[in-house]
Design brief:
There is one protein chain. The chain is α/β, with parallel strands linked by helices. Helices cover 39% and strands 19% of the residues. It has 9 helices and 10 strands. The N and C termini lie far apart (76 Å).
Length: 270
């Protein structure tokens, strides 16, 4: 009886952990909580077909005489309405921007999955190239947290002008192990997002941001990604928690973005 009870407790703990891990990977929100109009930003509300035919919602923010366009891949929670402040930052840096929601997030159809997030980012890339007519070398791929893993995968399949990776991880398995070192190993492989093995194959200069105060993604995982990335590359240590680093770091953050663009893209002469 004692062994049976112990086995039942272990199974229960495993199931609870599995549920926690799932919520760490995907936590979408359907409600649009903020609109670009509230910051006075012009935008186009549009839908793009992903590889499986599901339509994903995206907001395109044009900027007159833009230096380039940013394809922004957000993190594992919420939706694009919670990233309008980052669109505003891009606008201030004279950049147009496309923010999109993965399947199951915001107004996008479907359900999220690892391959689905990769397909959604590629669909957004194809939209910028084929529908908007942006040359690939004038597209900046920018990923935050889980979006960093999505951005890294995209930058191994296409050749953007630049890649920015903010507060991202080596793999979801490594994040889970950092938070739950006691968890059964087989549960840690449900999602991979193995950025550490992909980052050497990126086809663009890459700039990393990470904070030592990040309570979600350990700082050393950002360092490991930087170490594995090919040149040219840069690492910017920011301050603040996982979700407010770019806001708390202020000019340090925006000046680093601006400087990296100037160094590796220069001025668009076309």
């Amino acid at each position: 009886m004692k062994r049976w009870v112990e086995a039942a407790v272990l199974i229960l703990l495993a199931l609870v952990f599995y549920g926690c891990l799932s919520s760490l990977v995907y936590h979408p929100d359907k409600e649009i909580s903020f609109t670009p109009q509230e910051l006075g930003l012009e935008h186009e509300d549009l839908y793009i077909a992903s590889a499986n035919g599901k339509k994903i919602n995206a907001w395109f923010f044009p900027c007159e005489n833009a230096r380039a366009v940013v394809l922004f891949c957000h993190g594992n929670a919420g939706n694009i309405s919670e990233r309008v402040s980052q669109a505003w930052m891009f606008h201030k840096l004279e950049l147009s921007a496309l923010l999109f929601d993965y399947q199951g997030f915001g107004q996008s159809q479907g359900r999220p999955s690892e391959q689905g997030t990769f397909d959604d980012a590629r669909a957004a890339w194809d939209y910028l190239v084929q529908e908007k007519g942006f040359p690939p070398d004038r597209i900046i791929v920018f990923g935050k947290s889980l979006g960093g893993a999505v951005a890294i995968e995209l930058a191994t399949q296409v050749k953007p002008g630049l890649l920015f990776v903010d507060s991202s991880f080596t793999s979801t398995k490594d994040v889970a192990k950092a938070h739950y070192p006691w968890a059964p190993g087989f549960l840690l492989y449900s999602w991979k997002y193995d950025s550490l093995s992909r980052i050497p194959n990126v086809q663009a200069p890459v700039c990393f941001f990470h904070s030592k105060q990040d309570e979600v993604i350990p700082f050393n995982q950002g360092e490991a990604l930087f170490d594995a990335a090919p040149e040219p590359k840069a690492f910017v240590e920011i301050s603040g928690s996982h979700n407010d680093g770019f806001m708390k770091s202020g000019r340090l953050y925006t000046d680093a973005v601006d400087a990296f663009i100037k160094m590796h893209m220069g001025k668009n002469e076309s």
